[in-house]
Structure formats: C-alpha cells, structure tokens
Design a protein that fits this description.
The complex is a heterodimer of chains A (203) and B (446). With 203 residues, chain A is mainly alpha-helical. Chain A contains six helices and two strands. In chain B, helix 2 packs parallel to helix 15 and helix 3 packs antiparallel against helix 15. The chains are: A mainly alpha (203), B mainly alpha (446).
Chain lengths: 203, 446
Amino acid sequence: MNDAAHLKVAAALHYLSQPLIGVGIWVGRLTSWLVLAVIAAVMTTIIMNLLGMNELLRWENSIFLFNKAFTINSATELQWYLYGFLILFSSTYALHTNSHVRVDLLYQRFSPRTQHFVDLVGHVFFLIPFCLMVAYLYWPQVVMSFNSGEQSNFGGLTDRFIIKGALSIALVFMALNALGRIFYSLSIVIDPKRATKEPFHVH
Amino acid sequence: MFIEYMLPILMVVCLLLGIFTGYPVAFVLGGLSIIFALIGDIPLPYLGIMGSRIFGGVVENWLYIAIPLFVFMGLMLEKSGVASRLLLTLQRLFGQVRGGLAISVALLGVVMAASTGIVGASVVMLGMLALPVMFKQNYKEEMALGVVAASGTLGILIPPSIMLVLMGSIMQVSVGDLFKGALIPGLMLGALYIGYLFFMGWLKPEWMPLADPDDLDTDTTPLALALLRDLVGPVFLMVAVLGSIMSGIATPTEAAAIGALGAIFLAIIARKLDYVTLRDVCYDTAKSTAMIVFIVIAATAYSLIFKRLGGDYLIMDIVSSIGLGPYGLLLSIMLMIFVLGFFLEWIEISYVVLPLLLPVITLLDFGMTTQATLVWFGILMAINLQTSFLTPPFGYALFYLKGVTEGKVKITTIYKSIIPYVLLQVTGLILCIAFPAIILWLPGLL
C-alpha cells in the first residue's frame, strides 16, 4: 500500500513538472530565432551607415519603442534589445537541454537517480536563490526606468524598461523552470524506475 | 592570513567542491554569490549593485552581440556540410602525403577555428567529422585523437575568437589588437602541429596509412575545381571577417554579422540550406550563447561578492608574498592559470580571475607600454589556457574527446595521444614569453 502511495506521488510530481518544462522549451525555441533578427539589425545598421542615411522612416504619431522615426540609432539599439531577449530567455532553454557546462568527471559515473539528486539539491540551493535574488534586487531599477520614461540619449529606442524588465522577468522564468526540473528530478529520486523510461533532458 | 581571509578562501573551496559534484558551473557560481553575501552579511544597498552590474556588463554590452553571431557562423558552416566537404577536399589535396589526412584535420581546425570558440563545441565538431574517417583509414588511435584535440582547442585562440572578444571587454583593450596579437602565435602553433605530423609521417609511416585511392575518387570533380568550390568560400569568409576587424573598417559585431550572413550564403551555394538546418543552427546557437552568457552573468555576481569579502586583497597578498621580479611573477601567474584551466572553462577564468589579476599585471614592468603589456599578457593567457585544456589528467578537451568516441577508446590512449602536442604548446608559449615580438609585432605595439 505504501509502495503505491510513493509511486502516485512520483506520478503527480512528473505531471506537475511537464507544463513548466514545456513552456520553457517553447519560449526558448521561439527566442532562438531572434539571432536572425540580430543579424538583420546589424546589417541594417551597416547599410544605413554606408549609405550615410540617418533616418529610414518617419511617421506622425509616437509609437511604442520607436517613437516617431526609425533612425540609425534605432537600428543600433535594436541590436542589443534583440540580443538581450535572445540570451536571457535561451538560458532557460539551455537548462532543459543540459547545455550548461558541467565538470562531469564524477557526475557521469553516478546513477541517474544520484544525478537527479545532485541537480535537485543544486536547483534548490544555488540556481533558484540566485535567480530570484538578482531579479528582486534589480526590480527597483526597472520600476524607476518605467516611471522616468527612460529612453535612448541618442534618439534611438524609447521604453528602456522593456529590456531592463526582461532581465528580472527572465530570471524569475528561469527559477520557475528550475522548479519544474525539481519536480521532475524528485519524481525520479522517489521512483528510480522512471529514469529508464524518461530522458534526462531534451535536445 | 587565513583568519583574515577566511571567507574568500572558503568561497574558492566551495566553488571547487561545488563544481566537482557535476552541477553546472554557472549555477554554482551564482548560488555561491548569494550564499556568501548572506554569510558575509553584505548590506542590501551594496548587493543592489549586482543587478545593475549584470545588466550593464552583459545585457547592455555592445561587444557581446558578436558572440551569438560568431557561434551562428560556425554552426552554419558545420551543419550545412561546408566544413565536412572542406575536409574531404583537403584530404584529396594531401591524399598522397604521409599523414595527409591528419594535416587536413589540423588545417580544418585552423580555418574553422574561428567559429565556435568554445572548447567543447569545436573538439566535438572536429571529432565527429574527422575521427570516423581517420579510423576507417586505419590511423593509429593516438595519432588520430591527438590532432583532433589539439586542433579543436586551437579554435579558442585563433581569431575571430570569442574568448578574445570577452577578454578585450574585461581588460579594456581593443579587440582588434587582441585579434592581431593572437594571429601569429595561433598560426605558429598550427604550423608546429603540421610540422610534427609531417615528421611522424616520415618516421612512422605505418601509424598514418595512406587512403585507398578508390575511396578518394568518390568525388569526380577535378581537384582544382573542388578546391575552388570548398576551400575558397570559407577561407574568403574568414579573411573578410578578420580583415575587416583588424583593419578597423568594422567593429567585431559588424564583422560577425557579415560572417553569419556569409555562412548562410555559403550554405545556399552548397544547396544545403533548408528549414531543418536553419532551425537547428538557431536552436544550437541559442543554447551555446546562453551557456556562455549565463556563466558570465553568474561570474559577475561571484566576483562582486568575492571582492567585497576581501578576495582582491587576498590575491594581492599572495602575489606580493611571492616576492619575485616581473618575470617570476608572470610565470607564477601563468602556472596558477594553467592549474585553474584543469577545472574551469576559459569563461570563468577570464571573468573571475582575470579582473583580480589586472591591477597586478598593469604594475609589472617589462619595458613596454601598459597597452602592450595587457595585449601580450592576454595572448599568453590564451595560449596557456589552451594548453591547460589539453593537459592530462584533467584537460577539458580530453573529456569531450572521450565523449565523442563513446567509450570505444581508453582514456589512457587519449592521454598518450596528447603528450606531443602539449610539448609543442609549451614550446610555443615559451617562445612567446621570450620573444614578445611574436605577439606584439602585428598590432604594432612594440
């Protein structure tokens, strides 16, 4: 009877972990494509520079991020807005694909259960506190940026809070995904037989 | 000294213990920064800097936009088959020379070097590409493994190198100067490898048998045409990227974007660009970039706390207690970095250790300008790290190589394979220390 209970707990944990991990992979794959946008933004800057163009487009009403014109400084700053989103949200993706470097001298000799246990403890004591702490510490700056309407000093992009906020939000998102991995790893620590059926990470 | 510096010392010990559990290094760095901030009772306003440092240093860093672009360029050349076709053609070119295949691998390492810039990635790429071919041709295991590990790690040194982009940002020296400084030492090491392979081909021809001519003739294109098709493109791309950075026409970011676009064109010309390739390249670029950048993010936090706890004075005290002249000090620092390279990737070393050493290095007097000293030191450190990644028993590259061979090769064989290259590396490093001109001539910093 007791046996069945712990299997049920493992199944429940596994069930809980799936949407968290799934959304992390989905968002990460989506932001992966931003690298193409970064290339395009840099190329736009190069071309405008070569042609000596300062302004590509100008319009009447102030719009989000671009204000009233697309200038060479908009293109330049767009590069790092895009790059920022790319790196911040793909960290979570890399978590699920096991792309973060490990010194696996000992780790590779551990049983899958021990490996999951190491990750579990690590996420609880290292990754999640780090992500939440930095996100929390940085949040006042995001709020300040929003309230003061911080924008480019060179007529580039407006709404600087978007990219600043992305740092805090991406780290909270990372912590949530680490929670998903904790559930997942815990389900295998409780029910080691799962390790043979389930992959450790996706590709 | 130990009581006074208990916390920073403990922080280093915990880092080493933490990474040996196999938990990702980046997360250990980040977690320790928070744990030690609490233990050290660091006031909250000071901790508040952490977020802005990370934003300013990593997200808002114009130079780092080059990282995903260079990674993209390398992966595109690899996954679209441009790299493997280059290997095949080089092999035809050197087919009838003893050791020709190994020389082709070394050359491929130099040309592709460039791109990925992460030790693991380039060793794995070169290994997957070249090892099956070499084993099929009955190469002695040691000969095949050694050249892959050595040429794969050469990539972190030969520009355009991501490591040098990061170092430039940390040391506040021009990336163009670092690229120029690394070019001659990098090519020199490549030449040393090739010289060694020629020599071994002559000394032990049975270790590196020639290919069966029937196997080579699968490609019926005349050699000259094949060279034009497979070699000229990638070489032109590398020269364009490097040339534009070194001549100062383009920033590293601009050159990297042109390189990425060029790689897409080469893939289109090779008729290998489809949705799946493009998607995989984007996914893998994101993963590699995230891996690098997250270490940088976490290392920023770690070194901030380490310094606040007195870590920088600890380093200063250690350095001044060594009490040697500039060269003695340089050698001790090199030795320290070499040992660290056993445990850490270049990213952590550049990010955590380099900033701590910078004040010491700028004070050393080698009879050159500060700028020259920094460039010289940076490149020496790069060569040193590359050597460290190759040195048994802990070399990073060797573990990746073991991974690629899927356990079919004994780790002792890998150790044996690498010894000649480690000796060549040490030779190169000593030459660069003894004759700074090797590094400083091209950037014009003599």
